[in-house]
Design a protein that fits this description.
20 strands; 33% helix; FAD/NAD(P)-binding domain; 25% strand; globular; six-stranded mixed β-sheet
Length: 404
């Protein structure tokens, strides 16, 4: 059985991995020079096995005016004339209702817990070094209303037997002593012991390198798929610069760049590219860095040690496909970092930004399309790294079941 996987981000790599495990002959198409070059590089590196909160919620609805009026530093609309954003936002609103939010939120928690188990299996079986660390996440809150909302989320986690500890600021700083120099004060924090972090790009490249040793896996980089050729209810081939190549099944895992492929065959999933920014820099031996993943909820800033470097990611911006990384963003990220760790040296900086493909429900779209041998694995939002294992596993099972 010959299968094409379109898109070499973490979702495409995981989909390829689980299809390859099932004995399929897999060809992974990636338009860049290597896998994991976009959102799989420009992400926070966090594996949100418990801190996995749905974007659409009653709390967002209550505070929507702050986003609309740019009163929120963490989440901002940068282009009010982007009609695709407003179309997506209208689709998001129904998921802010309590019943829809609870359904989506429960689904995300269940998926994250399954993904945790699958990641453990990958680490055990593949023995790939990707700077993995599983000492939990410490989220800090500077707003009392937000802190009270998060405590309701913690109560929800308990129903799934997922641990989370509500802390005072003093307890949080005791948990992570590197916070004691913080210039910013907080109303409290939550420690999520199940959460972890690791280098997404390293794992993707490690997995594809191992699969390339097999005769049943082919990685085609610098090879964008231009079209999916269909006949009746089935897809017959994919079109690239090399011409037509026939496959029995196709999985589309193109992240925020789905339009190039799916719209050519009349499939239109409502996703929006939410922009995030990442700054990494060398660690200085003379400075004591935090051991944990630290998140400042008020500025949506995530800070963590990743191998020999330190990584800071920040902001949720609605700005279409604008790829600029302006100087004021760099200054704001650095300011947010130094509000928490005032003396942390920032040297040899690398900058990246990319787009998280958000489905209105917040839940990834894993399904068969109107073509019986074409499947999608899309819409993971900021949880692509976290949920890549479970959705890759699920779509591989779905494809296997349909083939049978």
């Amino acid at each position: 059985m010959r299968v094409a996987v379109i898109g070499g981000g973490v979702v495409g790599c995981m989909t390829s991995y689980y299809l390859h495990q099932k004995g399929y002959q897999v060809t992974l198409f990636e338009k860049e020079a290597d896998v994991a070059e976009h959102a799989s590089l420009a992400n926070a590196s966090t594996l949100h096995f418990s801190y996995i909160m749905s974007l659409g919620s009653p709390y967002l609805l209550k505070n929507m005016h702050k986003v609309l009026l740019r009163q929120s530093e963490a989440m901002q609309i940068k282009n009010y004339f982007d009609m695709s954003f407003w179309a997506w936002a209208l689709r998001l609103l129904p998921y802010c209702r309590k019943s829809a939010y609870e359904t989506a939120q429960n689904t995300l928690i269940e998926l994250a817990q399954k993904s945790k188990t699958l990641f453990a299996g990958i680490r055990e079986c593949e023995n790939i070094d990707f700077d993995f660390k599983d000492n939990g996440k410490l989220a800090l809150y500077d707003n009392q209303c937000t802190f009270e909302w998060v405590q309701k989320y913690v109560d929800r986690l308990k129903k799934f037997d997922v641990p989370a500890d509500v802390l005072t600021q003093e307890q949080a700083f005791e948990k992570e002593p590197a916070l004691n120099g913080s210039k910013k004060s907080f109303v409290g924090g939550v420690y999520y012991p199940d959460d972890a972090f690791g280098d997404c790009q390293k794992l993707c490249r490690g997995l594809t390198a191992k699969m390339k040793k097999s005769k049943t896996f082919t990685l085609k980089t610098n090879t964008p798929v231009k079209d999916i050729v269909t006949e009746g209810e089935e897809a017959k081939a994919v079109l690239t610069k090399e011409g037509l190549e026939e496959f029995d099944q196709i999985a589309v895992c193109t992240g925020a760049y789905m339009d190039d492929v799916l719209k050519s065959v009349g499939i239109n999933e409502c996703l929006y590219p939410i922009k995030g920014y990442v700054m990494t820099f060398d660690r200085d031996k003379s400075f004591t860095y935090p051991a944990h993943n630290i998140t400042d909820d008020g500025t949506a800033t995530v800070m963590l040690p990743l191998g020999k470097r330190f990584k800071v990611s920040s902001f949720v911006h609605f700005n279409g496909y604008d790829t600029t990384f302006k100087d004021d963003i760099i200054r704001k990220i650095t300011r947010n970092l130094h509000n928490i760790f005032p003396d942390m040296p920032v040297k040899n900086v690398n900058l990246a930004n990319d787009f998280r493909p958000y489905a209105p429900s917040g839940v990834p779209i894993v399904k068969q399309t109107k073509y019986k041998n074409v499947f999608v694995n899309l819409g993971h939002g900021r949880y692509g790294w976290t949920l890549s294992a479970v959705t890759g596993h699920n779509v591989a099972n779905l494809m296997s079941d349909k083939a049978a």
